[in-house]
Specification:
mainly alpha; membrane
Amino acid sequence: MGSQVSKPLEFSKIAASPDTAAAPAKPAPPATPGAPTSPAEHNWLKTCWSCRVLSGLGLMGAGGYVYWEARKPMKMGYPPGPWTITKMVIGISIATWGIVVMTHPKGKAYHQ
């Protein structure tokens, strides 16, 4: 009995045929540059508006939280140190990343 986690891992050895072991497999180039070669490469951020909004707002919220948490000591009168300023910059960067995800997803501006 026991769960899958408590059982030891079993590694099985698979013997490779001599012709595949000598030369590494090279994938075929895509027919047109930039075209997805399989459904697994389809970018959901390009087509799913609700996914972009949810991801973007989540990143903006996380960035805002990091920024405002870094500002707390400054509001209490402590002078900002290098680490405080670094956290503020990281928070702004995360929030900006969220804006980019919402407005301009990866690959949208690539035109041939």
